[in-house]
Design a protein that fits this description.
It contains 13 helices and 8 strands. By secondary structure, the chain is of the alpha/beta class. The chain has 2 domains: 249 residues, TIM Barrel; 99 residues, Chorismate mutase (Chorismate Mutase Domain, subunit A), CATH 1.20.59.10. The structure holds phosphoenolpyruvate (PEP) and manganese (II) ion.
């Protein structure tokens, strides 16, 4: 479907690259909102001031946002700091309240994008309204669902649309709170070259030390900008304390970024190459995660063998591994020499890991 996107020059906000959205995860108190906006305004780096008014929390019993009264704080703090403002809307009542208060840009959160009923409700509430809307990716890695949400807004007449990559939900432990899958936003950029795409390092990383590399990566991939959570007193934040940073740290972070020019000579070539590279990056990351998982199981096996006084090297099992893996590789059309080398390396690493776990101090011979 054809998506109409108005040229960035016609938008009511500063869309120069990098377009940076910053502000607290949640509006907590008037002082916190005004102070953050004022300090962010002074950095000269911010295009839009954010604060969550209604917070979608995974489990009840946590701070769910101040709700409507905080809209006034957000809008006034933004006006004082000379910054347009944005907040998350998840239903038509939120839209109505946000528009009434004078919010400049709306965003749709990952837990909303996932639900076509909610997206349609918001899109219907925005019929005839000329406001920029940012659509975050759904929590699950589904490009069609993301695209579908963007299409629903487009069909409602919204022409100032942006997408935002905030990573995807993951079961189990991971370095990232919501691991990114860069090839998905890049596919979106390839499909809709006029659609500005942003990134959300705060919700992808979930940790302060990951914000910089994620923001840099987003810029290197040619995204328009990013959104970062900033709080005057991050450790005391009522939500997402571990990922928020002070305005000073925010300033240092943004000053450290290298913003390379988009090689606009041939965007199609650039996008295709970036698409392919991002796919390789994601695949490698996934392989590493699997390797880590495999090693954890190896450690468990080591402990189990220790408890039951078994030797590390069980020749029968090793033969079976080689046989089955070579068979799988052949069936999948993988080079068996490549797989044999991989198995050799994996096996010696497994034995080393088990030796450490069992504390035998010496490594068994690896028999091929
Ligand atoms: C947020 O930006 O505060 C938020 C809740 O993000 P997400 O929808 O990406 O989880
Ligand atoms: Mn947050």
């Amino acid at each position: 479907m054809d998506i109409e996107i108005k040229p960035l020059s016609e938008w009511p906000i500063n869309t120069a690259r990098p377009l940076i959205i910053a502000g607290p995860c949640s509006a907590e108190t008037p002082e916190q909102v005004f102070q953050t906006a004022a300090e962010l305004g002074k950095t000269g780096k911010v295009s839009l001031f954010r604060a969550g008014i209604w917070k979608p929390r995974t489990r009840p019993g946590f701070f769910q946002g101040i709700g409507e009264p905080a809209l006034q704080w957000l809008v006034e703090a933004g006006r004082n700091a000379n910054l347009p403002v944005t907040t998350e809307v998840a239903n038509s009542a939120h839209v109505e309240a946000a528009l009434k208060a004078g919010v400049d840009v709306l965003w749709v959160g990952a837990r909303t994008t996932v639900n076509p009923f909610s997206v349609q409700e918001i899109a219907d509430a925005l019929k005839g309204v000329d406001i920029p809307v940012i659509v975050k990716n759904p929590i699950n890695p589904d490009l069609q669902l993301w695209l579908g949400a963007i299409e629903r807004f487009s069909l409602s007449g919204i022409t100032k649309l942006m997408a935002m990559h905030r990573g995807f939900s993951n079961y189990g432990s991971d370095a990232y709170r919501n691991p990114p899958m860069w090839e998905i936003p890049i596919s979106l950029m390839t499909m809709l070259p006029k659609l500005p795409v942003l990134c959300d390092p705060s919700h992808i990383g979930g940790r302060r030390d990951l914000l910089f590399p994620i923001a840099q990566k987003a810029m290197d991939l040619g995204m328009l900008g990013f959104m970062i959570e900033v709080h005057p007193n991050p450790n005391q934040a009522w939500s997402d304390a571990q990922q928020q940073i002070t305005p000073d740290v925010f300033k240092t972070l943004t000053e450290g970024l290298e913003i390379r020019s988009l090689r606009l000579e041939d965007p199609a070539v650039t996008h295709t190459l970036e698409d392919l590279r991002a796919r390789i990056d994601t695949i490698d990351e996934q392989i590493f995660r699997f390797m880590k998982q495999r090693l954890s199981v190896i450690e468990e096996i080591g402990l189990y063998k220790k408890e039951h006084d078994l030797t590390i090297l069980q020749l029968e099992r090793w033969r079976e591994i080689v046989e089955t893996r070579i068979k799988w590789a052949t069936e999948m059309g993988l080079d068996t020499e490549y797989i044999k080398q991989y198995l050799q390396l994996t096996h010696s690493t497994s034995i080393r890991t088990q030796s450490t776990v069992m504390n035998t101090g010496k490594e068994d011979e690896v028999i091929w």
